[in-house]
What we know:
The structure holds 3 protein chains of 3 kinds.
Chain A (H helix, E strand, L loop, with lengths): L12 E2 L12 E2 L15 H25 L2 H25 L18 H25 L3 H27 L4 H4 L5 H20 L6 H24 L4 H5 L1 H23 L4 H31 L2 H9 L6
Antiparallel strand pairs in A: 1-2
Helix pairs in contact in A: 1-2, 1-4, 1-6, 1-10, 2-3, 2-6, 3-4, 4-6, 6-7, 6-10, 7-9, 9-10
Chain B lengths: L47 H4 L10 E6 L8 H10 L25 E11 L4 E3 L23 E10 L7 H5 L5 E3 L5 E3 L10 H4 L6 E2 L6 E2 L5 H4 L6 H5 L5 E5 H17 L6 E3 L12 E5 L19 H22 L6
Parallel strand pairs in B: 1-11
Antiparallel strand pairs in B: 1-9, 2-3, 2-4, 5-6, 7-8, 10-11
Chain C lengths: L5 H12 L5 E4 L4 H5 L2 E4 L5 H14 L5 H7 L50 H4 L5 H6 L21 H9 L4 H8 L3 H13 L9 E3 L1 H4 L4 H14 L10 E3 L6 H6 L6 E2 L3 E2 L9 H8 L9 H13 L23 H9 L5 E5 L3 H4 L3 H8 L4 E6 L4 H8 L1 H4 L11 E6 L8 E4 L4 E5 L12 H18 L6 H11 L7 E2 L4 E2 L1 H9 L56 E2 L27 E4 L4 E4 L77 E2 L21 E6 L15 H4 L6 E4 L1 H7 L6 E5 L4 E8 L6 E3 L2 E3 L1 E5 L20 E2 L11 E7 L6 H13 L33
Parallel strand pairs in C: 1-2, 3-4, 7-8, 8-9, 18-24, 19-21
Antiparallel strand pairs in C: 5-6, 10-11, 11-14, 12-13, 15-16, 17-25, 18-26, 20-21, 20-26, 22-23
Main location (chain B): other
Pfam family, one (chain B): Fer4_4
Subcellular location (chain B): Cell envelope
Amino acid sequence: xxxxxxxxxxxxxxxxxxxxxxxxxxxxxxxxxxxxxxxxxxxxxxxxxxxxxxxxxxxxxxxxxxxxxxxxxxxxxxxxxxxxxxxxxxxxxxxxxxxxxxxxxxxxxxxxxxxxxxxxxxxxxxxxxxxxxxxxxxxxxxxxxxxxxxxxxxxxxxxxxxxxxxxxxxxxxxxxxxxxxxxxxxxxxxxxxxxxxxxxxxxxxxxxxxxxxxxxxxxxxxxxxxxxxxxxxxxxxxxxxxxxxxxxxxxxxxxxxxxxxxxxxxxxxxxxxxxxxxxxxxxxxxxxxxxxxxxxxxxxxxxxxxxxxxxxxxxx
Amino acid sequence: xxxxxxxxxxxxxxxxxxxxxxxxxxxxxxxxxxxxxxxxxxxxxxxxxxxxxxxxxxxxxxxxxxxxxxxxxxxxxxxxxxxxxxxxxxxxxxxxxxxxxxxxxxxxxxxxxxxxxxxxxxxxxxxxxxxxxxxxxxxxxxxxxxxxxxxxxxxxxxxxxxxxxxxxxxxxxxxxxxxxxxxxxxxxxxxxxxxxxxxxxxxxxxxxxxxxxxxxxxxxxxxxxxxxxxxxxxxxxxxxxxxxxxxxxxxxxxxxxxxxxxxxxxxxxxxxxxxxxxxxxxxxxxxxxxxxxxxxxxxxxxxxxxxxxxxxxxxxxxxxxxxxxxxxxxxxxxxxxxx
Amino acid sequence: xxxxxxxxxxxxxxxxxxxxxxxxxxxxxxxxxxxxxxxxxxxxxxxxxxxxxxxxxxxxxxxxxxxxxxxxxxxxxxxxxxxxxxxxxxxxxxxxxxxxxxxxxxxxxxxxxxxxxxxxxxxxxxxxxxxxxxxxxxxxxxxxxxxxxxxxxxxxxxxxxxxxxxxxxxxxxxxxxxxxxxxxxxxxxxxxxxxxxxxxxxxxxxxxxxxxxxxxxxxxxxxxxxxxxxxxxxxxxxxxxxxxxxxxxxxxxxxxxxxxxxxxxxxxxxxxxxxxxxxxxxxxxxxxxxxxxxxxxxxxxxxxxxxxxxxxxxxxxxxxxxxxxxxxxxxxxxxxxxxxxxxxxxxxxxxxxxxxxxxxxxxxxxxxxxxxxxxxxxxxxxxxxxxxxxxxxxxxxxxxxxxxxxxxxxxxxxxxxxxxxxxxxxxxxxxxxxxxxxxxxxxxxxxxxxxxxxxxxxxxxxxxxxxxxxxxxxxxxxxxxxxxxxxxxxxxxxxxxxxxxxxxxxxxxxxxxxxxxxxxxxxxxxxxxxxxxxxxxxxxxxxxxxxxxxxxxxxxxxxxxxxxxxxxxxxxxxxxxxxxxxxxxxxxxxxxxxxxxxxxxxxxxxxxxxxxxxxxxxxxxxxxxxxxxxxxxxxxxxxxxxxxxxxxxxxxxxxxxxxxxxxxxxxxxxxxxxxxxxxxxxxxxxxxxxxxxxxxxxxxxxxxxxxxxxxxxxxxxxxxxxxxxxxxxxxxxxxxxxxxxxxxxxxxxxxxxxxxxxxxxxxxxxxxxxxxxxxxxxxxxxxxxxxxxxxxxxxxxxxxxxxxxxxxxxxxxxxxxxxxxxxxxxxxxxxxxxxxxxxxxxxxxxxxxxxxxxxxxxxxxxxxxxxxxxxxxxxxxxx
Lengths: 316, 339, 879
């Protein structure tokens, strides 16, 4: 579909090519993108998105388990929070063009930058979660760790959704136009991911809250995704087709499987493990699918030109 | 170039942007020229430098007016820019896009001349769509009556550049404070601060800024910040032989552009229009704006760009509600029994 | 112009902003066309038909500027009764000998006129009598011969009537047929020209090598001159014909020539006539009337500048030290001499003939047959590496070990690394200052020649006693040469300022002269180039002046310095009417101030400042004194603008449409297909193709024209090595229409091969709507645009367009035809190795090409004739 060089030198891109018969005709500069595709790498950034969300929901799960006396579920939640957030930090650093300057993010606090705000959430959260995890594994200063785990859990919900703002606060149509729905998709996906891990890793006797999280989270993710696509208008095409479409369809099947499995996981350890796997895969695939859909809308000038032309400024 | 204080941010009550020197400052200085009812993330803004905290004595806002109706496509701007800013050659590919072998702005290309070949009806000046042969499609029928006088060729050329938006998304989303507002009202990257997170890249509604593939930092036009202080015009404007690229105080340029538009309309070039000069547009007006002879997207420009951070308050609210929903959902899951 | 002269084009844009209408006429729609109000595509090589059509339109419609034409042109002059026109003789003028023209029938009735330029030497006319000395002593005291005139312009043999008859058949219909320009567009151009000429308005023509690089190149310019004279657009502000040169200071290199047949200031190089003395030289080259009448002053001052104290009145000011021409030594002849073994050494400086000159293969054959070759350039150009990576090596035609040429590559300093001047197209000298020292072994051309001269002189001096009398005599011109410039710095760089001062000239006391009118033939003055005299007036380097425009008048006399005498418009006497009043207030430029009894105005008057408009010369007046007060064209032998050129051109007194050497069309104007006086070289490596109706012409059905891109410089020596330019135009390509692409199954960005009888080159296909097929003579005609910047070396590489071109020359200035040729094109890249030769042989066989092909209506080879004025545009590096 890229016009680029495959036409004569005089060709203006006018998209009427195969596969897009339903599209309005539009004009472009040789079919080239108008905005830049994000330079963010795969798997770094999708992993960062998934891990942060999972860690946030796990932290809440761990803290509540601690309150309610689920010691093994607590352990799973707090370790997943620490592991997830730590890995999330590493993925972020690895994605930077200049990783050695990671700390420059903590040099300032910029409320207009979701990445700055996110870093100020991620950094303390991962530090606190890490400390709690050390205590959890060594038994060192356990009473203090319980208080610290509580503090981490206060930051934790933000971990599940700030990445949605991070994506939405760009000129990428696939993310910006879905800015209202994305936080909910990410929030429920995070809950499902944490619940799935709790289901699989905690003993079945303690995993009931996690199973419920897996069921509700997965169903919530499915619902939120559906709402997103319905409200996305022209942008929905990017979510339904291509690599993003395939990935998101797979994610939906996995999420449905996760929810269904979680209903039966109390009875079978192997089902619990399948729930963990499918929930994790579903959540990760959702993030990757959203990421890919956004990239497609950046590459294809249709998504920039037509909405800007046809929707009034105030509508968007 | 050090500002004496950063304005208080109306949304968060904290400094909006880190300033050169790197320290976060807060200031008691009142809001500067804030539009009634709007937040300072969008809408008209008379003086972005003052908004960023520069003192009253800061220089006028400077910018470019690129009049594409007199651009001859010589690319002297591209070469002058690369020479002055020590930007390397970035590819020896023949693109087949008319005479444009540069293709787009990027980390090592801060001026880009677009070439658009069109067939127009000389009486109406409307574009005539002809089917150009596609790759490997020699059977495509050439235009009927090609040697007739029904149509004329029009070759549009336009030198694109960073728009130096009044509300610059790249600057807003930069988490390190590497992108700053200069005393001239321009938007500049401080290379020694940038950590290459790449957030500015998808944030820009014009696709201007990019990450350098070799050194990982973000780069774009600085409006030749290192020349302005010495009273020199930017390299591109200096090299332009036909005054297609005009540099000067933005207010003057906007007036000049209006006059030029009027002149062209009087001459019957009704297709001429200004792009980016309107302070009420989605980015609060561009510091580098254009006179175009066709729709913006024909030149690779977005028809109606909006600074993404305009919607940041709403996005933050949605995220907060979603986060609370997540927390409550988890909590609810702990309400039931152990089965 | 926007394409190849973008900086100069700013003034066109400025004029457009002020309301000027810009018309662009070109085979291709270029960046210039994009800016023009009107674009007129035409078939490459058909311009004389168009210009002739415009001339006819102006004459028939009575649109000419009658008062100007009657007073300032030779319209009224009566031509010799033996003259016969191409209209009478089916495409040839009277005097055609079969190998060229005997021009005597073209003369005016009653007077021989020496032309201001072109073929000047009139030895046979002057010395036809058995006593050369008597003929030479004629002059000062004898009455001047004046041609007969008919001021009513009605005499059947007056120039005006000849002109009318000559162009009568150049109708809009003919223009449409030959040029592919429809009548609507033709009339639009014609009406705009007429509407913008006259007392109140003027029109300017700007051209570049698209007009000169033809077998009738000079006649293209002549046709434009006729049109501009008829419209009264010469010598007036906003008028003129502006020659946009091929590269920086090409104007300078004809003023102070690098051409074999000129001395500085357009003084002809002496021919090898028997016992030619200074007197004889002056007699054969001076004009009876006008400033060429003072040629002796210019020549003696030049000889004094070169041989100083050694040049005295007793020894004819060392006139015998000047070489004498014995034949053609133009660059194409020289290369053929190289191939034939007659040339041992060759300096190539700032040129790249291995890819930059027509029939590049022929050029490389010459280079390969030398003893030594010196290449001075900024980059390791193809001319220095042809012996190891030239196409002949790849094709297996030769090997490096078979090439005996010893190549010396000497790195040159760029213009930023040396002081000096550029002389641009408007004859303006602009000084450039050294910005940085050259690094390494890089040296300026001035350094190279100065130090080379010193070494040669010292070697000759040291061996003086070993040499016999004849050798000593031969050494003398070098040993006696003034060669004493001050040097500065570690590398002993000669002072360019001192050279400029020497060119300017000095008086008997050694002070810088202020004007060429002060030059004397008694040996008291010296000047290295008489037209540059005044550039150092008052001991000030006036070329270095850079007074900003807002601080001086709109003529801007304080920016640089323009020859002659800092005049910005030549022949500006014509800006006033015969009585000396401006033609209109709007176009006032130079006028007669009756109170002061002086010529005055915005510019320096190009006229004797105190000669009143009503001045009439005495019958025995000569030189400038012989000009009437109404003769603005002060360098012309009759003081008039020439609608008809009675002398100076080798191919006719009037422009006539001929087809290019290679054309797909038959000449429908008359049965003479090509310029019968054109210069050809019949050689195996320079085969010509059939044209028009000749059998085999259909093998090469498409017209091609070579062109330049803004992004590159000439043959690429200054741009293909620069990354910031190479990336802007990174590959050799062919520009063609969607229709031709469909016809030949060519794919956008795919490879294609263009083939002629000389060579085949490959390039990428660029399909563009900017190229449109033309209808010409009832058939659809496709044109292909071929840029000529590429070669095998540098950052961006590609085949050289000059592999395609043959060498067929304009007879007067020996410029090659590069702008209109025929070819075939096919998809895919060209064959490699020996297969390439097979392909070419196949094509030649299919077209039935023999050594006689394309030589019709010009039976003899060029070498038989004898050129003496050279390339309009600097020769070899031009394509």
